[in-house]
Amino acid sequence: MTTVVLRSTDLTLRPWEQGDAGVLAALADDEEVRRWTSHRVAGLQDAVRWIATQEAGWESGKRLSFAILMTGRVVGHIVLKQSGGETRGEVGYWTGASARSLGVASRAVELLTTWAFDTRSEVGLSRLELIHNAGNPASCRVAQKAGYTLESVLPPRAPHEAEGHLHARERSTVHLS
C-alpha cells in the first residue's frame, strides 16, 4: 500500500517510524492508555518491535497505523483495521495526556474517516466501526463528535472484561463539525 500522510490545520497523521520509538515508549507508559486499551508497549525495545509490527500492517494493507502529530509533535495513535475484500473497517485510537481534552482524538478520527471513505483512496470503505469500553465516556464523546452513532452495547470480550460500545458511521453519512 502507498504511504499515506493525512493533514488538517494542526494535525498530521503519518505512519509510525522507527525514530518514534522513544516517544512511543513514553506515551504508552500512561495509566489512561493502559486502562482503556489493549495497547501495551513496555520500554524502548518493545516500542521498536511494536513499530515494526505496524509497518508489517501497512505492507499487508490490513492494519494502517498512524502516529498522530499535533503541531509536529507525536501525541497519539490511530489505526484503521481492515479485513480483506470487505467494504468495512474498524477505527481505534488513543492519545497521550498532553493531547487529551483538546479535541485531538475526534479530529484525528474525522480526518481518518474522511480519507477511508474517499472512493479515490486505496481504501474506499463504506462502513467504519469504532468500539470502546462502555465505561469510558470520553471515547463516546469522541465517536459522537466524529459523527459515529452508538449502535449497540457489546458483551465483554477478551482482552477487556467490561461491556463495549459499538459506534458506526456509513460513507453516506454527512458530518459537519
Structural features, described:
The chain has 177 residues and is of the alpha+beta class. It is 31% helix and 30% strand. It has five helices and eight strands. It has helices at residues 21-28, 31-36, 44-60, 104-117, 137-145; strands at 6-7, 11-15, 63-70, 73-82, 88-95, 127-133, 149-154, 164-170. The protein has an eight-stranded mixed sheet with strand order 1-2-3-4-5-6-8-7, sandwiched between helices. A hairpin with a 2-residue loop joins β3 (63-70) and β4 (73-82). The longest helix has 17 residues, at 44-60. The chain starts with 5 loop residues before the first strand and ends in a 7-residue tail after the last strand. The model has no long low-confidence stretch (mean pLDDT 88).
Describe the strand arrangement of the main beta sheet, using strand numbers.
1-2-3-4-5-6-8-7
Taking the alpha carbons of the first and last residues, their distance comes to 30 Å
The general outline is globular
**For the report, how would you describe the main beta sheet?**
8 strands, mixed
How would the blueprint of this fold be written?
Elements: E1 6-7, E2 11-15, H1 21-28, H2 31-36, H3 44-60, E3 63-70, E4 73-82, E5 88-95, H4 104-117, E6 127-133, H5 137-145, E7 149-154, E8 164-170
Parallel strand pairs: 5-6
Antiparallel strand pairs: 1-2, 2-3, 3-4, 4-5, 6-8, 7-8
Helix pairs in contact: 1-3, 4-5
